[in-house]
Amino acid sequence: MNFYSVASDFKAETIDGYERLNRENRDNQVLETYGQYTIANEFEGGRDFDNLAKIDAYDLKNYVEYSLAKGIGFNYVLNSSCMGNHEFTEEGIKKIKKHLLSLYKMKIRDLTVTLPSLIEIIQSLDLDFRIKVSIISQVNSANKAYAYKKMGIKRLVVDEAINRDFVKLKEIVQAF
User: Fold this and answer.
1) In the chain, which residues have pLDDT < 70?
2) How many CB atoms lie within 10 A of CB 85?
3) Alpha helices (H) along the chain
4) What is the pLDDT of residues 42-68, one digit of tens each?
5) Residue 46 to residue 118: CA distance in whole angstroms
6) pTM of the full predicted structure?
7) Which of 10, 33, 36, 66 is the most exposed place for a label (fewest CB within 10 A)?
8) In Å, how far are 4, 6, 35, 58, 62 from 106, measured between CA atoms?
C-alpha cells in the first residue's frame, strides 16, 4: 500500500477528489495534505509566502475541519530553516507557543518541523502533536536519523539527494 502527503491548495473540491480516490483505490491513499496560512502569519515555512495560497487562520480552520470530516488529515508546516533566533528568546518562545496553541485549537495535530530547537518547544507543551522532520533538515545519514529518533520523532522525510541511494536508505531505516 502507498500513502501520500500532498501539498494543499485549500480547496474543498480537491479534498472531495482525494476522498473519492481513497474510496476507489485502497492500494493508494492520500493520508494528509500539508501547508500553512499566509495572511497575518509571522512564522514562515519552507516556501516563500508569495508563492502560496492566500489564506488566513479562519480559512485554515474551516479547511482543516472539512478535511478531517472527509477522512483526510492535515499537516501544518513550520519548516523554515531559520526563525531569526526567536526560538531562543523568552518573547519568541511565548509567541511560538501561542501560535502552536492556536493550531491545536484548530484540531491540527501533525506538524512538519525543521529545527531541533522548535521540536523541543513543541514537546515542552506536552500536547499530542505528531512531528515529522522536514526534508529541509537534510536527513542523509543513519546518525542524523537516529538523533531525531532519540528526540522522540516517529516520521521524517529524507534528503532528496539520497532518495535513490538504497544503501543509505536501508541504514536510515535500520537506525530509525
Assistant:
1) 40-41, 43-52
2) 9
3) 12-24, 57-69, 90-105, 116-124, 142-150, 166-175
4) 766 656 656 667 888 999 999 999 999
5) 14
6) 0.90
7) 66
8) 22, 20, 14, 9, 9
